[in-house]
Automatic annotation (TrEMBL):
UniProt xrefs under Pfam families: Abhydrolase_1
Signal peptide: 1-22
Matching InterPro entries: AB_hydrolase_1, AB_hydrolase_fold
Annotated organism of origin: Pedobacter psychrodurus
Span of domain AB hydrolase-1: 236-340
UniProt cross-references to Gene3D superfamilies, sorted A to Z: alpha/beta hydrolase, Galactose-binding domain-like
Keyword NAD in annotation: no
The name this protein goes by in its record: Alpha/beta hydrolase
Source organism, top-level taxon: Bacteria
Molecular functions (GO terms): serine hydrolase activity
UniProt keyword terms in alphabetical order: Hydrolase, Signal
Length: 448
């Protein structure tokens, strides 16, 4: 809950604009980013480049020249008005990931005075689409009371997709918190001295996957119109999302896969920007027929397919029903029959969600009933269907997937050219939870 509150809070407060400084930095390390708080916004006691908290919170955030670890200033967060019910406030800076490396370490000095709750220092890493890749903090230590200057350290992995590093000191409750001499190390080298990436882009422009009109197209199928987006060049790779999802859920994959493949990402009928004028039950056989029509309209006679959850079910049906269209198939979290694939409690949970949605009169809820009903009634892929599949198939799932591991293994065991891979500690959402590992596994399979 706390992490959710922090994440929501920082989204409302943007970085303070860089402007003329009051003095030159005295510290050699990290001078570019003002991690020693030596640069001030002209005419103020505010640190350049750092956010300065929440207006009206009852806290004050500014530099302090009387108490510091070294140099001229330290950052001070103080609870100044105990009548205001806000229980915490924070400062924040966002650093670009310009440098090459795999390991990130954040070192910093803290001093406390009469802190009745605790202090924290969070750090997280995001990609250029603002997706969180890594997160860590000090909260488990419950640092409070009165303490002299002491150095602390946080360690994170630095994935190749990393674009931004967030530093987030925070004071909970009353008292005073000083922060000074923050240092960011990449593979043990200070960020000011680390090797710059050859392909570093100082102004990345995130692509609006699922809403990118420049890449968009539409195809009419039976009683529906499919919305799709195309990226890259090379062999075609069709991406099929899960129930109640859309193209955007594959944003971490499209960016990487489109470097070597022609990626066709599609919204399944009635989901995302695709329409559906039918009124009968939905089925994965219907979805498979839709995809065949889409491929025919794009003059694609053979494609690779990556299917997640519902998309994996559709991919299996396509490989069995339209084998000439499928070169290779990668699936994650797929099933052949819901009564065999998931626990009874999961089916009951879906049933309760359906009953709740039935009480709502809006069109979206009515369609959601159809989507969730399909989860309880579909698919009906037989063992014989699996044995008909002749294309190479990569069968994947998370170790903690809602799809039972024995069922995932059953699918792999009945496909003649299958590979099985279970992602340790991952859930049904492994394409988002383990981006690098998932993408590498799929590309390794497709590229062979």
């Amino acid at each position: 809950m706390l992490r959710s509150l922090l994440t929501a809070a920082f989204a409302f407060y943007q970085l303070t604009s860089f402007c003329q400084t009051a003095s030159d930095p005295l510290k050699p390390l990290n001078s570019e980013y003002n991690l020693g708080f030596e640069k001030l916004i002209l005419g103020t006691k505010l640190p350049l480049g750092w956010s300065v908290g929440t207006p009206g919170s009852g806290y004050k955030i500014e530099v302090d020249s009387a108490e510091k670890h070294s140099g001229k200033y330290a950052l001070l967060i103080t609870k100044t008005d105990e009548e205001i019910k806000s229980t915490y406030d924070f400062s924040k800076i966002v650093l670009p990931v310009k440098c090459e490396g795999n390991k990130l370490e954040i070192k910093f000095f803290l001093k406390l005075e009469n802190v009745d709750n605790y202090v924290d220092f969070s750090s997280w890493v995001e990609d250029e689409d603002n997706g969180m890749l890594q997160y860590t903090n000090l909260s488990a230590n419950k640092i409070n009371g009165t303490k002299g200057w002491q150095q602390y350290s946080l360690k994170l992995s630095l994935q190749k997709e990393a674009s931004k590093i967030y530093l987030f000191p925070v004071l909970y409750g009353t008292g005073k918190l000083w922060i000074d001499d923050v240092q960011v190390l990449i593979d043990g080298v200070d960020i000011s001295e680390a090797k710059i990436k050859l392909d570093y882009d100082p102004n990345p422009q995130p692509i609006n996957y699922g809403g990118n009109t420049a890449a968009a197209g539409r195809v009419k199928v039976k009683d529906a119109e499919l919305y799709y987006e195309t990226y890259g060049k090379g062999e075609p790779l069709l991406l099929l999302h899960g129930n109640s999802q859309s193209i955007s859920v594959f944003r971490k994959q499209i960016k990487i896969f489109s470097k070597t493949y022609k990626v066709i990402a599609v919204d399944t009928r009635g989901q995302g920007k695709s329409t559906d004028y039918s009124t009968g039950p939905l089925s994965y056989d219907l979805y498979a027929d839709d995809m065949k029509t889409l491929l025919d309209s794009l003059h694609i006679s053979k494609t690779n397919i990556l299917g997640w959850s519902d998309g994996g079910n559709t991919g299996l049906i396509m490989a069995a029903k339209y084998p000439k269209y499928v070169k290779k198939l990668a699936i994650t979290g797929a099933c052949t029959n819901p009564n065999e694939a998931v626990s009874a409690s999961t089916l009951e949970e879906v049933g309760r969600a359906i009953e709740s949605l039935k009480t709502r009169p809006d069109v979206k809820s009515k369609y959601q009933v159809r989507l969730f009903t399909m989860l309880l009634t579909e698919p009906h892929i037989t063992t014989l269907d699996l044995k008909r599949i002749k294309a190479p198939v990569l069968v994947m799932a998370g170790e903690k997937d809602m799809i039972l591991e024995k069922h995932t293994k059953f699918i792999a065991a009945n496909i003649s050219k299958s590979q099985l891979f279970i992602f340790k500690k991952a859930t049904h959402y492994v394409p988002l939870e383990m981006v690098s590992e998932f993408n590498t596994k799929v590309l390794s399979f497709l590229d062979k």
